[in-house]
Amino acid sequence: MVLSARALPAGSRADSLQRLLSASRPDTSRVQLLIEMAWERTDDNPLVGVEYGQRGLRLARRLQYPVGECRALLMLGWAFMRTGNYTTAIQTQVQARRLAESIGYAGGIIHADNALGYAHLEQGSQRLSLRYFRRAIALAEKQHNVVLLTPILGNIGRAHLELGQPDSAWYFTWRGYQLDLQQHDMHSEIGDLSILGDIAARRQQPNQAQYFYQQTIVRAVGMPVSYATSRAYLGLARLARAQQQPAVALRYAQQALAAGQAGSYAKGVFEASDYLADLYATQGNSTDAYRFLRAAAATRDSLFSRARMSQVQALSFSEELHQQELAEQGERAAAQRRQNMLLLALAGLVGTAGFGYLLISRRHLRREVEFVQERQRLERRYSEDILDAEQKERRRVGADLHDSVGQLLSAAKMTLSALQHQLRLTEIAHKDLFANTLEMLDEAVREVRSISHKLVPNALTRHGLAKAVGSLLGRLTLAPSCLQARLEVAGLEEQRLDSTLENILFRMVQELVHNVTKHAQASEITVQLLATPQQVRIVVADNGQGFRQQQSPVAAGIGLRNVESRVAYLNGQLQITSAPGQGTSVVLDIPLRPVPMPAAASSRA
């Protein structure tokens, strides 16, 4: 359960909205239609939902319609969340909440807090999610807004369930379910029914769990909620298996798979396929077990493909947010100039207005300065939250690659090996085919492990920046290009930097080294990490083809712009020196305050 929505036939409503949209004028009514269309498509195709949400956002900004702009941002946040792009989803919801606060839009604040809580809940941060949900509930109750309160209670119940607190989970979810019935909110009702089934199953109440799962399936007929029906069928399959009814469990698992496929719910297809593979493996049916393992792997690939497409959309959307930030900075600068002119005017009137007027003006100015300082502090904390969310997302994706895809590939290899022994192949061509297949699976396992380690370098977490950069350069020397890499370290042997700072510095070095390997056509690369108590200097130099100083390297691509923005965030300096045929040198000077390495961490190293 995520947002509140009334019961309407899914297909007919989308068609009706599309007809209204095609006949509408470019005014505030079209903004509302685009937002509603984005919500309708988010259930079955979140990428299309993102497109409609962006169209609504652009039109709202062009019309200077702040409420529509806030609602479009909220809808985009949910659409990005359905694609698995939690970093952009959180960034978008924070932007929506700031706008809602500035225009006094209480409903937007409640929606944003609920969405932020849900995003953190999806990533496993249950306690942090509860902080956002409770803040949303407090404002909804203060506003006496039962419609917005209804879907939040089930989210709180799910958070308590994942924390291992089934009694609290039951209390909040049951309250939410009663409000669902009062408000005729079928989307929220169906989601709450599936959660109540999960709670009953956790409390070892199989009959009650079966009742709620079956009610979920009955109420979901004709509704675009394949995620709920797929989960309900899978819950029934687990109950049947626990009751030693393998045939019934198999039938329910197949229905869960069919429900996920019918609604294009990739996560449900993956979970159902994986569960069916486990059921068949338990029964000794290795052929069907392998078939569903392959289906689960294919679905996982589609999930990653959808995530990559979402990232492409998020890049352009992030650029829009950046341009909006620049516009706001311009407005603040203009306001500051007006303030300075006012101060000059006030200074000219000091002689006639008297000391008392001057004192009042100084107090007013001090409040303005304090406000600007507080705004800057909040913006910096917001940037830190975004970087932390990005790192968490990298860890999550790396873990999913290693634990899910890697395990599936290993299982597939074991199954093939077993099949090879059972078939007792005699023809050389068949043996070679099996050997090549096993070799390709080994290569896939190594590739998945390599990607997961690149996303979250183990050396960076355990040993710090110097070891992580050394490991990065060590892999270069093993590559087919045979690029000679050298690392020079000074001042980092006995100390560790702040973990967030180390992560930012490593990503910048990683991007610069990637540019060298991709564009420089170099045979040698040197990386220097030189730390003092005041700053750390990073130098990345190569003997490649270079470029003219008047030109930006690699046409100022996204990677270099990311390096420049991170240097600016750290209040550092970036200097690039290059000439055609004479290689390139990039120097980063970052001010810092070193943090001594704890004794426990040193002993583990």
TrEMBL record:
It catalyses: ATP + protein L-histidine = ADP + protein N-phospho-L-histidine. This is Oxygen sensor histidine kinase NreB. Residues 505-594 form the Histidine kinase domain. GO terms for molecular function: 4 iron, 4 sulfur cluster binding; metal ion binding; phosphorelay sensor kinase activity; protein dimerization activity. Keywords: 4Fe-4S, Cytoplasm, Iron, Iron-sulfur, Kinase, Membrane, Metal-binding, Transferase, Transmembrane, Transmembrane helix, Two-component regulatory system. CDD domains: HATPase_UhpB-NarQ-NarX-like. Its EC number is 2.7.13.3. The keyword S-adenosyl-L-methionine does not apply. GO terms for cellular component: cytoplasm; membrane.
